[in-house]
Design goal:
By secondary structure, the chain is α+β, with helices and mostly antiparallel strands. The chain has helices at 3-21, 43-57, 71-76, 91-110, 161-177, 182-192, 235-257; strands at 61-67, 115-120, 146-159, 196-208, 214-223, 228-229, 261-267, 272-275, 288-299, 308-321, 333-336, 353-356. The protein is built from seven helices and twelve strands. A hairpin with an 8-residue loop joins strand 9 (288-299) and strand 10. The longest helix has 23 residues, at 235-257.
C-alpha cells in the first residue's frame, strides 16, 4: 500500500476505532479504592533506575553537529530527476531543506540537558542559495566530543487527491444510480478538483560516541501530518516537513534515553494509568505503551561461587496514550489500559514500569 493511502486510512481508522470500541471517557472516571494498589515488588527496580538516571544527568556530553557524508548525495542530485514528487527540487531548495534540518537539530540539542553544543558546522545555516563547502570528517580522539550527524535521503511532495479521487468517483456513481440531485453530485465532483498536498521526508540522524560506537540511529520516512489545500505544492510546506521529521527523530532519542517510565497514578480502578513523563520527553497521543515489571531470578553458578541474580522484563499489558480522552501534558501522560479494571484481571498498578512501543 502506498504511503499516502496509509496516511489517509490511518487517520480514518483511529476515529473509527474510537466509535466502535465504546470506551469509557477519561472525564467520566474517578479515583476508586483499587487505585491505591501499588506494585510493591517492582518499586525497588524503579527507584534504582531513577537514581541511575539522575546520576547520568549530572554530566553533559559535548557534541558536534554536522551533515553526514551521505548528505552530499542529496545536494548534488540532478534537479530534473523529480521522480514522483509534485515539486521540482532545485539546488537552492535542496540546500535550504538541508539548512532547515541543521538549524532545527541545533535548536533542539541546545535545549537538552544531555548535551553541551561545542561546535556546529554552520555553513549550512546561511542565506538561501549559499554555497555549501564539503568538509572531510576529521578523525575523533577517544576523549573528543560526541558526533551528531544528519542526512536527508529524499523528500517527496504528494497530492492526497490521488487517493481521495477514487472514493469520490465511487460516491458519484452511487449517487447517479440512486437519482441524487445535480447539486449533490456537483459537490462530490468538486471534491475531485481540490488538491491536498502533503510531504514525506526520508531522514537519518545518528549519534556516535568518541570511541566510534553508534549510540543512536534514526532512519525512517516521516509523513508530515498537515495537509494543505492549494493549486500547487508549496516549498514552505516542504521545509516544515523537514523540521517536523527532525523533531520526530529527536523524540525517539528522548524516549530511548529519557527518564525511566513508570505508572505514578491510576483512575477508574486501573482503566487509565498516568506515566511519570509526558510530551517533554517525546510522549504523544496515539503511541502504544507496554507495561512490565522487573522479575529477579537466580542464575546457575559453579560450586563455591556466590549466588547470582539477574532481572528480566515480564510483559503485562499494553495501552494507548491519549485514548478515550486521556490528557497528555508536558510532564505526565495518561494511558488507556484496556481491560485492566476487570475483576481479577488487574495487573497494572502504581510503580509498574512502562516503555513506548516503537
Amino acid at each position: 500500500m502506498k504511503i499516502q493511502n496509509k496516511f489517509l486510512l490511518g487517520a480514518a481508522s483511529l476515529a473509527l476505532m474510537g466509535m466502535l470500541s465504546g470506551c469509557v471517557s477519561f472525564s467520566d472516571c474517578a479515583a476508586m479504592p483499587g487505585d491505591a494498589d501499588t506494585d510493591k515488588g517492582n518499586m525497588p527496580f524503579v527507584a534504582q533506575a531513577r537514581k541511575d538516571y539522575e546520576a547520568r544527568k549530572q554530566f553533559k556530553r559535548k557534541v558536534v553537529i554536522k551533515m553526514s557524508e551521505k548528505g552530499y548525495r542529496f545536494l548534488t542530485v540532478d534537479p530534473r530527476r523529480r521522480g514522483s514528487s509534485r515539486i521540482f527540487l532545485t539546488d537552492g531548495l535542496r540546500r535550504d531543506l538541508m539548512a532547515t534540518a541543521d538549524s532545527t537539530l541545533t535548536n533542539i540539542v541546545s535545549t537538552m540537558q544531555d548535551f553541551e553544543l561545542v561546535n556546529s558546522e554552520s555553513s549550512l545555516r546561511t542565506t538561501p542559495g549559499a554555497t555549501i563547502t564539503r568538509v572531510p570528517a576529521a578523525p575523533q580522539a577517544p576523549s573528543g566530543p560526541y558526533l551528531l550527524t544528519f542526512n536527508i535521503n529524499d523528500v517527496e511532495m504528494s497530492d492526497a487527491n490521488d487517493a481521495i479521487r477514487g472514493v469520490t468517483n465511487i460516491a458519484d456513481i452511487a449517487m447517479s444510480a440512486s437519482g441524487a440531485s445535480r447539486n449533490s453530485r456537483r459537490a462530490v465532483q468538486r471534491a475531485n478538483e481540490i488538491h491536498w498536498y502533503y510531504a514525506n521526508v526520508s531522514l537519518e540522524v545518528t549519534l556516535t560516541a568518541p570511541n566510534g560506537k553508534n549510540v543512536f540511529n534514526f532512519a525512517e520516512t516521516v509523513v508530515y501530518p498537515e495537509m494543505l489545500p492549494g493549486n500547487r505544492p508549496s516549498e514552505s510546506t516542504l521545509k516544515q516537513a523537514v523540521a517536523h521529521a527532525v523533531r520526530e527523530a529527536m523524540k525517539q532519542y528522548v524516549i530511548a534515553f529519557g527518564p525511566p517510565l513508570y505508572v505514578d497514578q491510576t483512575v477508574g480502578d486501573g482503566l487509565f494509568a498516568r506515566l511519570s513523563a509526558g510530551s517533554e520527553y517525546g510522549i504523544s497521543k496515539g503511541q502504544r505503551v507496554r507495561f512490565f515489571r522487573w522479575v529477579s531470578r537466580q542464575v546457575p553458578t559453579l560450586p563455591g561461587e556466590p549466588e547470582k541474580y539477574e532481572a528480566s522484563k515480564q510483559i503485562i499489558r499494553e495501552g494507548v496514550v491519549g485514548y478515550c480522552g486521556a490528557p497528555v501534558d508536558r510532564d505526565h501522560a495518561w494511558v488507556y489500559v484496556d481491560g485492566n479494571n476487570e475483576p481479577g484481571k488487574k495487573s497494572v498498578f502504581t510503580w509498574t514500569s512502562a516503555e513506548i512501543v516503537k
